[in-house]
Design brief:
By secondary structure, the protein is an alpha/beta fold. The chain is built from 33 helices and 16 strands. The strands form four sheets. Strands 3-2-6-7-1-8 form a six-stranded parallel β-sheet. The protein has a six-stranded parallel β-sheet with strand order 11-16-15-12-14-13, sandwiched between helices.
Length: 728
C-alpha cells in the first residue's frame, strides 16, 4: 500500500453519499491522478456506486489511459472496463452520435471540415459580398477565423466580443451563419464543434437531455480549471438527474484563456451553481525543493482571482535553489544566461534532458536554439518547428535569397513567389504564375525575365495598366531591382544590415502588426524578426547563413527519426511544459515580452497580468532542484526578490548537500523509478531513462516537411526546396 498523506487519505475516504458536490484543490505536483483514482476505486469497492454508473473525464487521451490502468489495479477484475473514462470531447462526440435519442448531428464526419474551408468561406464573403480588395480581405481573414473559433467556446448566441474595427466593417454574425450553413452541407464536424453541438443537443432535444442527465451517478472532472463555458454547460446537464459531482483542478494553473477556459468558473461559478460544495485541499507538492515552492507561492499570491491555498513541500523535500539575474534584454545577455548555467551543470553530471529552457512564446525558443547551435549542444523543441522554419524566418530568408541572387533557379523562383505574396498585394498567386510563365520556357529565373528591357512594365496583371494588381506587381519588382542594385554596387557589411533594409523597404513589420489578434504568438512576429536580424549580423554572406540553417535541418531530421529524447536540452513553452518535470529549469524573460505590454482598459490589463503570472507559476513548478531566472521581468522580482545571481564557480553538489542520503540515493524497484509520489533525485547514474513525449508534434498547426524531403534538401544544399515543400 502506498503511503498517502493525511490530505490524500481524507479525500480517498470521503463519503460521496454525504455531500453531493466536492471541489478538490490540487496544487502542482500533488499526486492528484493517484488520489482521484483511489477515490473512485474506494467508492466502487465500498459499493457506494456501481462501476457502469461512474464517469471520469480527463483532459487528454494519455491521462485517460493512465487512469484506467491505475483503476484496474484497485478494483475487482472487469470493473474498471465498466467505468466510462474519456476526454470531454470524446464524451461530447458520443452525445452528438446518439441517434437513438434523436441527435441531429449523427451524420457529421469528424475532420471533414479542415481550416482552409473556413478561410475560403470567409474570403468569399469578404470579396464577393463586401467587395473588398485582396489585401484588405487577407488582413481580416485570420482575425475573423479567430473570432469564429472563440465563438465555439461560448454558448450559442452569447458571443459578443467583436472588436469595433471589425464590427463596423462586416456583419460577423452573418459570416458565422454562412460558415455553419456550408459546414452542414458538407456534414462537417471539427474538434471545436463537438462541445457546442453536444450542448445544443442536450438543451433542445428532450430525449437526449433525459438520457444523459440520468446516465451517471458519479461524475469526476479532472483538470477542471481548463474547462470553458460550453464544456461546463455539458457538465451541468450531466448532473441534472442527481449525480454526485467531483471537480479536480488548480485555478492557479488555468492557462488556456485562448481556448475559453477561465479560472472564474472554478472560483466563483461552481459554488453559485452547486449549493453545499465541499472543498478538499491537496497541497503537498512531491516534486520541487522548498525554496522553489516558496518562490512560486510568493509570485502567485499577487493574483486576486484565486482560491486561497499554498504549496507545501513534503517532509523529506530537498532544499533546491532559485537564482535570479536581472539584466536588460540583449542577445548578449540571452547567451549569457545559458553560458553561465549549462557548462557547470554538465560538469556536475546533469544529463541534458534534465535541463529545460521554458519560454513564454514559441519565438523565445530561438534564444536557446541559437545557443545550442553555436555550441554544438543537442536539443529538442517540443511541439514547434525550428525557428529557421517559422513563417517569419522563411519570409525574410526568401527576400535575402532574392536580393543577393544566390542559389539555383528553382531556389530563386521559390524565393520570388514567397516574397511576392507577402505582404499580401492585390494580385493572386494564379495571376503571378501567369505573368512569369514564359520565364520557364526561356530557362530564366522569374526576376531575370521580368527585368528584361522588352518585358519590364510590358506585362499587365489585372484589367489594365492602371489596375491595383498591376501597380502593386510592378512596384514590388522595382523595389527588388533597386535593392539588388544597391547590394551589388556596395554590398552590405552583413546579412543583418540587409535584413534591416528589407524590413523597412517592403513593410514587413507593418504587415505582421496588422495580423495581430491578441497577445499570443502572433504578437511576437516582430520580435522574431528582430532575433533573425541580430543573428544575421554574424554572417557576412548568405552562404554562411545557409550553413547554419542546414545544420539546424540536420539536427531536426535526427530528432524526427529518434524517439529517444535523452541527452538533449529540452526547449518548450510554458503551455507545453504543463504536466512535465525536470531537475533544472531555465527561464529567460524581459518586461514587455513576459509579461506582455498591455494596451487595454485597466480592468482587462489586470486580468491579463494575472493570466501571465499563472504561466510563470507553472514554469517554476516544473523544477525539482534548480531554477535559473534571467532577464528583467517583474515576475522574477516577485518570485525571487533579492536572491543573488549564481556565482561563476557554483558547485552543483553544494545545492544538495543538505539532502538526506535516502533521498539522494533512492532505491529502485526492478530497475524502475519509485512511484511519482516519491522523490526523484541524484545521483543520475542510478535513475532509469526518462520517458519523454515521442516525436509527435503536440498542438502542431503548421504541417511539418516530409523527413525524406528534408534529407533530399540537405543532400542537395537546396534550402528553398524545403520551403517549397511547405507551400505545396
Amino acid at each position: 500500500m502506498l503511503n498517502y498523506t493525511e490530505e490524500q487519505q481524507h479525500i480517498i475516504n470521503a463519503d460521496l453519499n454525504g455531500a453531493k458536490y466536492y471541489r478538490i484543490l490540487a496544487v502542482a505536483g500533488s499526486g492528484k491522478t493517484e488520489t482521484i483514482t483511489s477515490l473512485v476505486a474506494h467508492a466502487i469497492n465500498s459499493r457506494q456506486f456501481m462501476p457502469h454508473r461512474v464517469l471520469m473525464v480527463t483532459f487528454t487521451k494519455a491521462a485517460a489511459v493512465t487512469m484506467r490502468e491505475r483503476l484496474a489495479s484497485r478494483v475487482q477484475l472487469g470493473e474498471a472496463e465498466s467505468v466510462t473514462i474519456c476526454t470531454l470531447h470524446s464524451l461530447c462526440l458520443r452525445i452528438c452520435r446518439d441517434q437513438v435519442n434523436g441527435s441531429v448531428y449523427h451524420e457529421r464526419t469528424v475532420d471533414n471540415w479542415p481550416d482552409w474551408r473556413t478561410e475560403r468561406t470567409v474570403r468569399d464573403q469578404l470579396t464577393l459580398t463586401y467587395k473588398m480588395s485582396r489585401p484588405e480581405a487577407e488582413t481580416l481573414i485570420p482575425k475573423i477565423v479567430e473570432l469564429y473559433t472563440r465563438s465555439k467556446r461560448q454558448p450559442r448566441g452569447s458571443f459578443k466580443d467583436i472588436p469595433p474595427e471589425i464590427a463596423n466593417v462586416v456583419n460577423v454574425e452573418r459570416i458565422f451563419e454562412n460558415i455553419e450553413s456550408r459546414k452542414q452541407e458538407q456534414h462537417g464536424l471539427t474538434f471545436d464543434d463537438m462541445p457546442q453541438y453536444a450542448l445544443d443537443s442536450l438543451a433542445t432535444i428532450p430525449n437526449i437531455r433525459r438520457h444523459w442527465g440520468h446516465r451517471f451517478d458519479l461524475v469526476v472532472i479532472d483538470e477542471f480549471q481548463d474547462t470553458d463555458y460550453v464544456q461546463y454547460g455539458v457538465v451541468r446537464h450531466l448532473t441534472t438527474g442527481g449525480a454526485r459531482l467531483v471537480i479536480v483542478g488548480d485555478d492557479d494553473q488555468s492557462l488556456y484563456k485562448w481556448r475559453g477556459a477561465r479560472p472564474h468558473l472554478m472560483v466563483f461559478r461552481v459554488p453559485d451553481d452547486y449549493s453545499g460544495l465541499v472543498d478538499l485541499p491537496l497541497t503537498t507538492n512531491f516534486r520541487s525543493g522548498s525554496v522553489i515552492l516558496k518562490a512560486a507561492n510568493r509570485c502567485i499570491h499577487h493574483n486576486q482571482v484565486r482560491l486561497p491555498k499554498e504549496l507545501r513541500p513534503r517532509a523529506d523535500a530537498p532544499v533546491g535553489a532559485v537564482f535570479a539575474t536581472v539584466e536588460a534584454n540583449t542577445n548578449r545577455t540571452s547567451e549569457y544566461s545559458f553560458s553561465e548555467v549549462v557548462p557547470p551543470l554538465r560538469e556536475a553530471g546533469c544529463p541534458l534532458h534534465e535541463i529545460a529552457f521554458i519560454c513564454r512564446y514559441n519565438v523565445g525558443a530561438a534564444v536557446a536554439e541559437t545557443y545550442c547551435l553555436n555550441h554544438d549542444i543537442p536539443y529538442v523543441i517540443y511541439g514547434n518547428q525550428s525557428f529557421h522554419q517559422t513563417r517569419e524566418a522563411r519570409i525574410i530568408y526568401a527576400y535575402l535569397r532574392l536580393i543577393t541572387d544566390v542559389g539555383s533557379p528553382p531556389d530563386l523562383n521559390a524565393a520570388f513567389e514567397i516574397a511576392a505574396m507577402f505582404p499580401p498585394r492585390y494580385f493572386s498567386k494564379q495571376e503571378l504564375h501567369a505573368a512569369v510563365k514564359p520565364a520557364y520556357a526561356l530557362n530564366m529565373t522569374n526576376i531575370e525575365y521580368l527585368l528584361q528591357d522588352d518585358v519590364f512594365r510590358k506585362i499587365v496583371i489585372g484589367k489594365s495598366k492602371g489596375s491595383p494588381q498591376n501597380r502593386a506587381f510592378w512596384r514590388f519588382v522595382e523595389d527588388v531591382a533597386e535593392t539588388r542594385k544597391e547590394h551589388a554596387d556596395d554590398p552590405y557589411t552583413s546579412m543583418g544590415a540587409l535584413v534591416r533594409v528589407i524590413r523597412r523597404r517592403f513593410k514587413i513589420d507593418k504587415q505582421f502588426n496588422k495580423m495581430i489578434r491578441g497577445d499570443g504568438d502572433e504578437a511576437q512576429s516582430v520580435p522574431a524578426l528582430d532575433h533573425f536580424q541580430e543573428m544575421a549580423y554574424d554572417h557576412e554572406t548568405l552562404e554562411s547563413l545557409d550553413a547554419l540553417i542546414l545544420k539546424t535541418l540536420r539536427l531536426k531530421l535526427e530528432d524526427d527519426g529518434n524517439k529517444d529524447k535523452r541527452g538533449r536540452i529540452q526547449i518548450l513553452t510554458g503551455h507545453k511544459a504543463k504536466g512535465l518535470e525536470f531537475d533544472v529549469v531555465v527561464v529567460h524573460a524581459d518586461q514587455g515580452v513576459f509579461p506582455h505590454n498591455q494596451r487595454s482598459e485597466e480592468e482587462k490589463a489586470v486580468e491579463k497580468m494575472e493570466d501571465e503570472r499563472r504561466i510563470f507559476y507553472v514554469m517554476l513548478t516544473r523544477a525539482r532542484h534548480l531554477v535559473f531566472l534571467h532577464g528583467d521581468s517583474q515576475f522574477f522580482e516577485e518570485a525571487a526578490g533579492d536572491l543573488p545571481a549564481p556565482p561563476l564557480d557554483f558547485n552543483m553538489a553544494d545545492i544538495w548537500k543538505d539532502v538526506p542520503e535516502e533521498v539522494r540515493n533512492p532505491p529502485l524497484i526492478d530497475g524502475e523509478r519509485l512511484p511519482s509520489t516519491m522523490p526523484n533525485s541524484l545521483p543520475y547514474d542510478r535513475l532509469p531513462p526518462v520517458q519523454l513525449p515521442d516525436g509527435e508534434k503536440i498542438g502542431q498547426r503548421i504541417r511539418e516537411p516530409d523527413p525524406q524531403k528534408v534529407q533530399e534538401v540537405i543532400d542537395r544544399d537546396d534550402l528553398m526546396g524545403l520551403f517549397r515543400s511547405n507551400q505545396e
